Amino acid sequence: MSKAWRLVGADGNSYDSDRPGALGGHRRSRIYGRLDCRAALQAIARGGYVKNRVFFLNQTDARAAGYRPCAVCLPQDYARWKMQQDQAAASR
């Protein structure tokens, strides 16, 4: 029997996977980032963060599930996401 990991899919629902997640996220803040993210590791060390921790197979799934990139560990992806948000707000 192979090990299973619990991931969040593009639809926002959890599922079991035979592959570990490549990205971690926080359910309440709706932010995702690298598993070695300095900000996430600091939050985990402070406690309380882990109960809302989720995992994604890739960025496509994380974005489709409504999460945004972390500004600390994914600064270029965050800058693109922020620009898109600003453009959407300007066009309203």
Largest sheet: 4 strands, mixed
Low-confidence runs of at least 5 consecutive residues: none
Structural class: alpha+beta
| Total number of helices | 3
Q: Could you say what the CATH topology is called?
A: DNA Methylphosphotriester Repair Domain
Q: Sketch the topology as an H/E string, one letter per element.
A: EEEEHEHEH
Number of strands: 6
Whole-number total of structural domains: 1
Architecture per CATH nomenclature, i.e. the level-2 architecture: 3-Layer(aba) Sandwich
Strand content: 15-25%
The helix content, as a percent range, equals 25-40%
Characterize the overall form.
Answer: globular
Q: How are strands sequenced across the largest beta sheet?
A: 5-3-4-6
Q: Average pLDDT value?
A: 92
CATH class: Alpha Beta
Tell me the Rg in angstroms.
14 Å
The end-to-end distance, rounded to whole angstroms, is 52 Å
Domain Ada DNA repair metal-binding: 25-75
Protein name: Ada DNA repair metal-binding domain-containing protein
GO molecular function, one term: DNA binding
Keywords: Activator
Topology at a glance:
Blueprint: E1 5-8, E2 14-17, E3 23-26, E4 31-34, H1 38-46, E5 53-56, H2 59-64, E6 68-69, H3 75-90
Parallel strand pairs: 4-6
Antiparallel strand pairs: 1-2, 3-4, 3-5
Could you characterize what this model shows?
The chain has helices at residues 38-46, 59-64, 75-90; strands at residues 5-8, 14-17, 23-26, 31-34, 53-56, 68-69. It has 92 residues and is of the alpha+beta class. The protein has one domain: 3-Layer(aba) Sandwich (DNA Methylphosphotriester Repair Domain), CATH 3.40.10. The strands form 2 sheets. The chain has a 4-stranded mixed sheet. A two-stranded antiparallel sheet has the order 1-2. The N and C termini lie far apart (52 Å). The mean pLDDT is 92. Residues 25-75 form the Ada DNA repair metal-binding domain. InterPro entries: Ada-like_dom_sf, Ada_DNA_repair_Zn-bd.
